[in-house]
């Protein structure tokens, strides 16, 4: 579907994680169905768009890809504030990239809005023989932080559908909830205004007769 097509809601997501964990490849595969073997360091930030259906609504996902290199933090941290959802990515073949998750989670807490949805992705499952982080270890970290955990390969589009969909669904659900609570707040306010007036206001005179 073209990115200029009509949509009901815009959802801004962000990919963060150490250098070379596969953030750019995940996004290229998810948005354009392409896989690149070579690593080109992301300089600062980049974004792609994909449309999906969530609960009967067409959602335009604007997905921001950030540099894993710490020297770009001054640039990337500005993007956390606008992100409604964050995908924290590590490489299952790199213990150190998993250990960095605590740092990336801290950045989300420091720079993003407090209700930002988060999901953890363990990438490169096609390299199972080089795995350094057991699924259970990553799952335990995710559970301790109340976050969902998925394993993916940027070579396999099917493995990406669930985590992106789930994160987007969480954002849509949170938006609906906050819209509902704003509406409820309005109803309560109107009720309070009405009950504070003991006598109901006189009916307005009809103009037609
Ligand atoms: N086998 C395999 N290789 C992958 C996968 N994902 C990424 N790669 C490779 O890992 C390397 C780094 O991938 P990138 O997507 O550029 O990594 P990145 O996280 O964007 O890195 P920075 O932009 O520097 O932060 C590249 O050589 C990719 O081809 C995967 O799922 N499987
Ligand atoms: Mg990159």
Structure keywords:
Small_GTP-bd, GTP binding, binds guanosine-5'-triphosphate, binds magnesium ion, 209 residues, Rossmann fold, disordered C terminus, alpha/beta
Task: Explain briefly what this protein structure is.
The protein has one domain: P-loop containing nucleotide triphosphate hydrolases (Rossmann fold, 3-Layer(aba) Sandwich), CATH 3.40.50. The protein has 6 helices and 6 strands.
Topology:
Elements: E1 9-17, H1 23-32, E2 45-54, E3 57-66, H2 73-80, E4 85-91, H3 95-99, H4 101-111, E5 117-123, H5 135-144, E6 148-151, H6 157-196
Parallel strand pairs: 1-3, 1-4, 4-5, 5-6
Antiparallel strand pairs: 2-3
The structure holds guanosine-5'-triphosphate and magnesium ion.
Can you characterise this structure?
40% of the residues lie in helices and 22% in strands. By secondary structure, it is an alpha/beta fold. It has a single domain, classed as Rossmann fold (3-Layer(aba) Sandwich), CATH 3.40.50.300. A hairpin with a 2-residue loop joins β2 and β3. The chain is globular and about 50 Å long. The site of magnesium ion has 4 residues, from α1.
What Rg is obtained from the alpha carbons, in whole angstroms?
A: 22 Å
CATH fold topology: Rossmann fold
Helical region count?
6
Number of strands: 6
Number of structural domains: 1
Order of helices and strands: EHEEHEHHEHEH
Rounded to the nearest angstrom, the distance between the terminal CA atoms is 55 Å
Average pLDDT rating: 88
* Strand line-up in the sheet with most strands: 2-3-1-4-5-6
């Amino acid at each position: 579907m073209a990115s200029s097509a009509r949509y009901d809601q815009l959802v801004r997501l962000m990919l963060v994680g150490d250098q070379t964990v596969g953030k750019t490849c995940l996004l290229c595969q998810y948005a354009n169905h392409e896989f690149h073997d070579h690593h080109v360091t992301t300089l600062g930030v980049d974004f792609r768009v994909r449309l999906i259906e969530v609960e009967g609504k067409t959602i335009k996902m604007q997905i921001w890809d950030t540099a894993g290199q710490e020297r770009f933090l001054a640039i990337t941290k500005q993007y956390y504030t606008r992100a409604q959802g964050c995908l924290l990515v590590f490489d299952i073949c790199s213990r150190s990239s998993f250990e960095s998750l605590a740092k990336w989670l801290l950045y989300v807490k420091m720079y993003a809005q407090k209700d930002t949805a988060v999901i953890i992705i363990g990438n490169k499952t096609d390299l199972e023989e080089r795995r350094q982080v057991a699924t259970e270890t990553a799952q335990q970290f995710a559970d301790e932080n109340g976050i969902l955990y998925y394993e993916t390969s940027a070579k396999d589009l099917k493995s990406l559908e669930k985590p992106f969909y789930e994160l987007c669904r969480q954002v849509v659900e949170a938006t609906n909830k906050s819209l509902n609570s704003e509406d409820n707040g309005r109803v309560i306010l109107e009720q309070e205004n009405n009950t504070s007036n003991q006598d109901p206001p006189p009916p307005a005179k009809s103009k037609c007769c």
